[in-house]
């Protein structure tokens, strides 16, 4: 069984699956596309490297480094994950809520 905190973040990142990501995304009103998955996998890689979920600035920087200028900007990320790209992407990726995200 998957446990979530009061904000809907998975409490055990190891229990995350792609199927669960689709369910969480649906709860956020997002239908996952290839572009969403690119960001989700980058967020998960960031977490594995630094043991924390990226806040918005590190997310933008990481996307820019890995996927290029056209995707490494706030406008593009907001188009995929409205309101707070780092927070929503981390939630869908089964990771803890990033620091500095309300």
Q: In words, what does this structure look like?
A:
By secondary structure, the chain is mainly alpha-helical. The chain has a domain at 37-93: Orthogonal Bundle (Arc Repressor Mutant, subunit A), CATH 1.10.10. The chain has five helices and no strands. It has helices spanning 18-27, 34-50, 56-67, 74-80, 85-92. Helix 2 packs across helix 3 and helix 2 crosses helix 5 (85-92). The longest helix is centred in the middle third of the chain and has 17 residues, at 34-50. The protein is globular. The termini are far apart.
Write the layout of secondary structure elements.
Layout: H1 18-27, H2 34-50, H3 56-67, H4 74-80, H5 85-92
Assembly status:
single chain
Q: Indicate the overall shape.
A: globular
Structural class: mainly alpha
> Uncertain runs with pLDDT below 50, 5 residues or more?
none
| The CATH top-level class label of one domain | Mainly Alpha
Task: Kindly state the percentage of residues in helix.
Answer: 40-55%
Stated plainly, the CATH topology of one domain is called: Arc Repressor Mutant, subunit A
């Amino acid at each position: 069984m998957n446990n979530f905190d009061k904000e809907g973040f998975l409490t055990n990142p190891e229990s995350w699956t792609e199927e669960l990501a689709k369910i969480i995304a649906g709860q956020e009103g997002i239908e996952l596309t290839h572009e969403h998955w690119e960001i989700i996998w980058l967020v998960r890689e960031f977490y594995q490297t630094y043991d924390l979920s990226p806040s918005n600035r590190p997310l933008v920087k990481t996307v820019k480094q890995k996927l290029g200028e056209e995707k490494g900007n706030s406008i593009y990320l907001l188009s995929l994950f409205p309101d707070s790209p780092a927070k929503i992407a981390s939630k869908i990726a089964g990771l803890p809520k990033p620091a500095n995200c309300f």
